[in-house]
Amino acid sequence: MDRKITIPGELSLAAGLLLISLAIPLMVRADFGISTISSLPFVLSNVFDGMSFGVWNLIFQTCLLIILVAITGRFKTGYLISFVLTVAFGSILDIFSGILSGLPTDLGLRLLYFAASYLMMCLAIAMMVSSRVPLIIIDAFINDLTAHYHVTFRRLKTLFDVICLSLSVAISIVVFGDLVGVGIGTILLAFITGSGVHAANRLMSRAIVIKPWSETLGNMAK
Fold first, then answer.
1. Cβ proximity of 11 and 214 under 8 Å
2. What are phi and psi of 31, to 5 degrees?
């Protein structure tokens, strides 16, 4: 039997954070509809365009943290690190959004962007959730509620995506009379992202073991 490779959780988290920060703007460029977890802050960034997409991501995820603590009745020290990571995520997201804004938008390339961004997003989420160190808020929200309600990650992720999609559609129609950032791709992602993350996690587990280098960070994630 081949030996598995051990990867530090901190490295897995950092790689996943960079990967998803790249995947989301690439999906925006594909223009088939943004990922469901990003659809609400994206719509809000169009409604209140004085603040960037990255800033609205931070606001959205901060609200999720408040909801998480209210539901579980527990504030973990690791949430402070989650907040810092989320600030970094918003900043990197804005940087990649600017870099990718000039990509060509031929139909064939847009299809390629969408497929690539979906695969990147599923892998990134799997890498971050498996890191066993404090996560960005949105992943900590789903991960900790999964443990709190004793349900599968795939089921809760799908439910969360559907809720985000519904709110995004409602706000878009009320404010713009049309769908903004929401398309056939968004609807599709609401139902397949959870399964994609689950598949990516299973594939990774066959070849690698992810273990935090810092015992302190590992304990903060519990």
1. no
2. 65, 35
